[in-house]
Amino acid sequence: MTNVLQLENTNALDFKNQIVKEVIDALKGFANTLQPDNEQLLTREETAKMLSVSLVTLWDWTRKDLIPAYRIGNKVRYKKGEVFEALQKMNKFQS
């Protein structure tokens, strides 16, 4: 079965421009909901799992300011990119 769409009072160029505009608006709306991967907020559990450490170790590193953390209400969150940066700093051998 074929569906037929009939358009009146418009030409092909106006119709195409309207479709393009709507697609662009939809993509902009979608893009605004995405966070860059480095800015992704992780829970304590996700961060500890990513680093393969216990929650106690993660808390110790946070308390010593080795890994920056953010308090949102009563929850603690970590930015993924900052966790990797902190890990690189911790992993450098001192000469």
UniProtKB/TrEMBL annotation:
Protein name (Swiss-Prot/TrEMBL): Helix-turn-helix domain-containing protein
Domain Helix-turn-helix, chain residue ranges per copy: 41-89
Highest taxon above the source species: Bacteria
InterPro entries referenced in this protein's UniProt entry, alphabetically: DNA-bd_dom_put_sf (IPR009061), HTH_17 (IPR041657), SinI_DNA-bd (IPR010093)
